[in-house]
Write a sequence for this structure.
């Protein structure tokens, strides 16, 4: 299956760089950052709703058992999913076996014919780096001729991004049909099946139906009690483990590490990136207790990395990795940031492990796939003049790493940061890390996210901690307007924090560019 051609909005230019702001219409002209209109318009959904009412009057009253019909369209499937318990949006979660029921997931899959049993899978857990590791590994395998399914989370713009084969996300029609079947089956098992459980089941069913060669499954939350942890992979991968979701997973790195280590299986090889010594100790003790073969890069697998600059690649990281099967020397990492070196190393180590069984994994194809890897929402430059970069740095370690990576890879005079995050994060540490690189800070929040910290609260805490002035914006379009007015040609606007804020930014700018093309 060929990788689809995605729209590239990374090299967009406005014809004249003059900014005129009309406070009445809230439009920022010529810079290309137009606020979305607040005028209410009739949507097709509301029109369809009225039509539906007329039809329903002509029909006989439905019985009580039929009062909640199965969703039939993509939009109604989305509404149904959003009506389910979604721990990505819930403020307070009890993290225990009563809330996260793996037995419920097993019952659902059993009712569906256990699609996971026909799949070869790789399971990926960690605090940061899961998406980058999955992307590099999937690209290399695809280039080697494998059909690769990926189940990732969260999504940026559309939920269909989470389920993909060879980089092509599931179509809306296929997603609708699949979810309808999964929802119907789930309701016969237990009506409390959650949003993420339904998506997990759908992904496994889709990959089984499409007979993928390998499926890379990302953990949603934690590991031990995550709904993906009902699978038996042939390889488990652990990316960097650090403090995140402390209210749920635990207040120390040791507690969080033990939850992540929950994806380990007896006899199934597990490979980890270099970890904090306290984390490494937990991982080794747990692996030994269940007889899981564990290798940690930099300890059990020889590894080194260095930052360099070349004429053809510019600033980048190169790594050396020596496994018991392969030697990769001075290999350039395709993604920006020194931290991507360890993610690349674990992806290469995974391929080296697979090569023990697979003859179709050739170095030349691997390197071509690796070189072409691009991850949406990770240091992604999506607009020029002014330059706008987005990155879903949604926890302290990711944000600190982003600030360092931008400084190393992106030249700029001044950086304007637009930031919003969720209240279950270590907000104060994130604000400190934001101040490392941000010369001007604008706080905002994604629409419809109940876990988002209020922008005014972020401003208050930032001023209290850093003693610096900052601004707030009601929404991302207003934040972009403020930033655009302040940015010069040599400045950089960085939108970071919560993934849904990044997705909202991307969607806003994509729609804006489409509108500009129509009017130009």
């Amino acid at each position: 299956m060929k990788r689809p051609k995605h729209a590239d909005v990374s090299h967009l230019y406005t014809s004249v760089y003059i900014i005129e702001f009309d406070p009445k219409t809230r439009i920022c002209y010529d810079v290309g950052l137009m606020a979305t209109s607040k005028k209410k318009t009739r949507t097709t959904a509301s029109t369809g709703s009225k039509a539906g009412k007329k039809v329903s009057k002509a029909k006989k009253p439905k019985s009580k058992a039929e009062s909640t019909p199965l969703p039939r369209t993509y939009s109604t499937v989305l509404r149904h999913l959003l009506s389910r318990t979604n721990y990505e949006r819930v403020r307070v979660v009890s993290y225990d076996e009563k809330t996260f029921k793996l037995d419920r997931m097993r019952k659902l899959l059993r009712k569906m014919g256990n699609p996971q049993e026909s799949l070869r899978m790789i399971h990926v857990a960690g605090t940061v780096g899961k998406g980058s590791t999955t992307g590099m590994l999937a690209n290399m395998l695809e280039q080697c001729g494998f059909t690769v399914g990926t189940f990732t989370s969260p999504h940026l713009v559309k939920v269909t991004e989470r389920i993909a084969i060879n980089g092509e996300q599931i179509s809306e029609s296929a997603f609708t049909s699949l979810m309808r079947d999964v929802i119907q089956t789930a309701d016969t098992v237990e009506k409390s099946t959650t949003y993420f459980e339904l998506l997990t089941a759908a992904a496994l069913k889709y990959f089984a139906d499409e007979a993928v060669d390998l499926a890379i499954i990302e953990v949603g939350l934690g590991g031990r009690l995550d709904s993906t942890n009902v699978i038996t992979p042939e390889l488990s991968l652990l990316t960097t483990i650090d403090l995140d979701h402390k209210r749920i997973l635990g207040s120390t790195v040791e507690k969080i590490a033990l939850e992540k280590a929950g994806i380990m299986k007896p006899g199934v090889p597990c490979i980890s990136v270099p970890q904090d010594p306290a984390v490494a100790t937990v991982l080794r003790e747990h692996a030994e207790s269940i007889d899981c073969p564990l290798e940690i890069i930099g300890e059990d697998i020889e590894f080194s990395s260095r930052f360099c600059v070349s004429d053809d690649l510019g600033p980048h990281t190169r790594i050396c990795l020596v496994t018991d099967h392969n030697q990769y020397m001075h290999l350039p990492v395709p993604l920006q940031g020194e931290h991507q070196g360890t993610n690349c190393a674990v992806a290469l180590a995974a391929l080296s492990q697979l090569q023990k069984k697979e003859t179709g994994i050739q170095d030349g194809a691997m390197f071509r796939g690796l070189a072409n890897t691009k991850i949406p929402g990770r240091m992604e430059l999506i607009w020029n003049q002014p330059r706008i970069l987005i990155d879903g740095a949604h926890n302290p370690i990711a944000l600190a790493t982003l600030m360092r990576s931008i400084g190393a890879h992106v030249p700029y005079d001044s950086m304007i940061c637009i930031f919003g995050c969720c209240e279950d994060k270590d907000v104060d540490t994130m604000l400190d890390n934001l101040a490392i690189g941000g010369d001007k800070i604008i706080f905002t929040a994604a629409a419809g996210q109940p876990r988002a910290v209020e922008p005014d609260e972020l401003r208050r805490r930032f001023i209290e901690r850093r003693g610096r002035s900052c601004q707030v914006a009601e929404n991302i379009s207003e934040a972009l307007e403020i930033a655009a007015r302040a940015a010069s040609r040599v400045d950089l606007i960085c939108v970071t924090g919560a993934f849904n804020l990044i997705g909202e930014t991307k969607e806003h700018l994509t729609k804006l560019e489409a509108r500009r093309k129509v009017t130009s």
User: Anything to note?
Assistant: The first strand starts at residue 20 and ends at 22. The chain has 16 helices and 19 strands.
